[in-house]
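@channel sequence for tomorrow's demo:
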Amino acid sequence: MSNEQLINVGIPLLVVFVSYLTFRWADNTPGKREGLIDSDSIIHTSFEPKL
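structure tokens (generated this afternoon):
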């Protein structure tokens, strides 16, 4: 397999893998919305400063 073939196959697989992990992670966060990722709520719940 040439490097070009490896890249053409590897990048889509990597994207699918990362997407799967992201959805699994979003699935485990409280207050999820039907499995859809709401970046605002994730940012606010994860990085909200403790005052």
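heads up for whoever presents: The CA atoms of residues 7 and 13 lie 10 Å apart.
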